[in-house]
Structure to design on (244 residues):
């Protein structure tokens, strides 16, 4: 992962560089910048995967710089580094992947880096993990330092449970830390909602059946489990099954 450090204070950049060097996890600091304008140019020149970006800088603020970085092709991931936690909400509204509060702790930095993808968008397209439109072809979960991936085409259903979503696929299950709504919006051609807490694979939805208590259940090809269909979504599912 190629990382660009952006902070108007050299000691702050040096601290981040030292913390990254201590991680020894395949991360490389490829450049530094002291303001937003230089940050955008450096991110383009170095093809940075990630920008660790200070919020308070002369000229462009961190959030303004993040907006400019988003226009690059491909855009790097951005993590806001700030002494002011109140910027966190604004950060997420600007498509910032995460934020770190100064002074940055090594454990928090490592946890943030581990949540980010290790490859650039062109690399993911070339490897088949993502299509040219930017949509993923795989869902991923981190387990004990490793990564488990499942192709979107292999997913039978997605079930929201507490803070996680269970991904049921041909080989079993895995848990991912994503919202059902975001998955529905990202993959409208793959999944259809049958319940407030469930999406099913369109290609695997083959019918409906009645349970003993009168509830309507979705029947999926290659899956013995039956999932309840809510009254709200039942008319849409019936129309879908009639018309394919």
């Amino acid at each position: 992962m190629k990382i660009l450090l952006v902070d108007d204070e050299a000691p702050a950049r040096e601290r981040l560089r030292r913390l990254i060097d201590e991680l020894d996890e395949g991360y490389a600091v490829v450049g530094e910048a002291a303001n937003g304008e230089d940050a955008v140019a450096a991110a383009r020149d170095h093809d940075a995967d990630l920008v660790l970006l200070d919020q308070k800088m002369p000229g462009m603020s961190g959030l303004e710089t993040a907006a400019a970085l988003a226009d690059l092709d491909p855009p790097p991931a951005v993590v806001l580094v700030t002494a002011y936690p109140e910027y966190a909400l604004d950060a997420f509204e600007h498509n910032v992947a995460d934020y770190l509060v100064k002074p940055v702790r090594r454990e928090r930095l490592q946890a943030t880096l581990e949540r980010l993808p290790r490859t650039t968008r062109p690399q993911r397209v070339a490897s088949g993990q993502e299509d040219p439109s930017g949509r993923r072809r795989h869902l991923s979960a981190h387990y004990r330092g490793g990564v488990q991936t499942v192709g979107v085409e292999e997913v039978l259903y997605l079930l929201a449970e507490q803070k996680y979503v269970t991904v049921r696929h041909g080989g079993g299950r895995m848990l991912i830390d994503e919202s059902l709504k975001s998955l529905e919006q990202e993959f409208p051609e793959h999944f259809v909602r049958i319940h407030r807490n469930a999406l099913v694979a369109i290609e695997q939805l083959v019918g409906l059946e009645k349970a003993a208590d009168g509830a309507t259940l979705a029947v999926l090809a290659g899956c013995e489990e039956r999932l309840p269909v809510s009254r709200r979504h039942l008319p849409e599912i019936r129309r879908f099954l009639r018309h394919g």
Residues 32 and 175 are 37 Å apart (CA to CA). The chain has a mean pLDDT of 85.
